[in-house]
């Protein structure tokens, strides 16, 4: 027994001295490895361990007959081709196959190589393993295990990605173009996050260093749980409320002066910082704890105190009768999609991320850093006003629904008349309420609730678009700006020069809806927003404006001719 202990002690001492002096790139703490789950010997503390093997280091390292794949490497490597995914809007190239230290880690964690498959003679026979939780299948790590990665790594943080000058420059360009929220940088020299060697290429630069599994994980030290090199994890997997921001900030810069004004970066509001939404090992969405809309609703849903629910319970809106169908269609959103849409084969959809940049949003700037389309159809790096965000989907998209119109054209300032979204109205209506200042502008959300409403289409209050009995409720939307008494007393529209058949006669006696004669957004041919509803008005639909509130129409309403 004494000889056995001396022999194994000598082997471990030799390995530590050799690795420390000749191989180890940075100082690594070994003192605690025996107390971690990476101690796979029979005396290890984890649920996966050897049936009888007493050596600790042998599962990864050996001083003799080692593989050249890693430092004194003693494991067989996986021969699978990993699913790395397609480039997204923030990725600049298709991820390459893992190499370097990441490939070593995956030899256990991808579940395709037996945990006991070592290569050192005379131990060519696989070490027999046992587990108490069903974490092994045929000796290989199963999907039940916390450390299981699998062969589909497309949703995980990319590994074996060179972080060189070419990538930093390209990411900076993306940042300047508002395509990503933060640029990328190399970790500072004193950061616990380190770049590791990779043979993969980016921008023609090969043989550089980049992000590997061992950039963020130290396999020999589990002082910070999950073998992380920084952060505050107390258990593994790390709870979403615990802070791993130091890891993220090492490469993804989030320390600019404006961050304190952004609620999603304020740890007093979002516990855990980055980890509240992000995880490097994801199964549902790329480096996210859940699908984007589900993440949003964890805070902007029915949870929280009364004040929070009143201010931010978006779930209560997106489940109303008339909604942007986020819950049903956000799965089709792509970070690099083109808006307005130019591909009719892409399912029409809407996502929280179409209108909100979660990293840059501020109070009073909910649309910060969102791309836009201006009233002339020109794409903009950053929308300067709300309507330019709406035009991304509701203007020149090739797959507009059959009952939708190009809203951008309806608000065109070159039109004969329009609601003052893009430019001040050409004249002030006599029916406008006195507290509305001359030259006032409105926004799309002045009339529409973008998340959801009980009034179609996404209207803030009721608006009857079919003929019927007039009331304050029937045309509540219109009466929010237009004086009902003024309209019903014919001050703004007195009727034709001869018959004096004005607003009151149309609305009260004939029960005509405002929508029968007026456009909601704008009219390219008539003043006063006159644009007859074709489901009611047929024939020539001629409108003759005599100024001063007098006009004459030649048209057919419900099959009856009017002149």
Write up this protein.
- There is one protein chain.
- A three-stranded antiparallel sheet has the order 5-7-6. Strands 14-15-16 form a three-stranded antiparallel sheet, with no helix packed on it. The protein has a two-stranded antiparallel ribbon with strand order 1-2.
- It is α+β, with helices and mostly antiparallel strands and 563 residues long.
- The model is unreliable at 4-31 (pLDDT under 50).
- The chain has 17 helices and 16 strands.
- The protein has helices at 2-23, 100-109, 165-176, 213-216, 245-251, 292-299, 306-312, 315-318, 326-329, 352-355, 386-394, 407-410, 444-447, 476-479, 484-488, 503-509, 514-517; strands at residues 48-50, 129-131, 136-137, 140-141, 161-162, 196-197, 209-211, 322-323, 372-373, 379-380, 417-418, 452-453, 522-523, 537-547, 550-557, 560-562.
List the main descriptive attributes of the protein structure presented here.
alpha+beta, 3-stranded antiparallel beta sheet, 563 residues, 9% strand, 16 strands, 17 helices
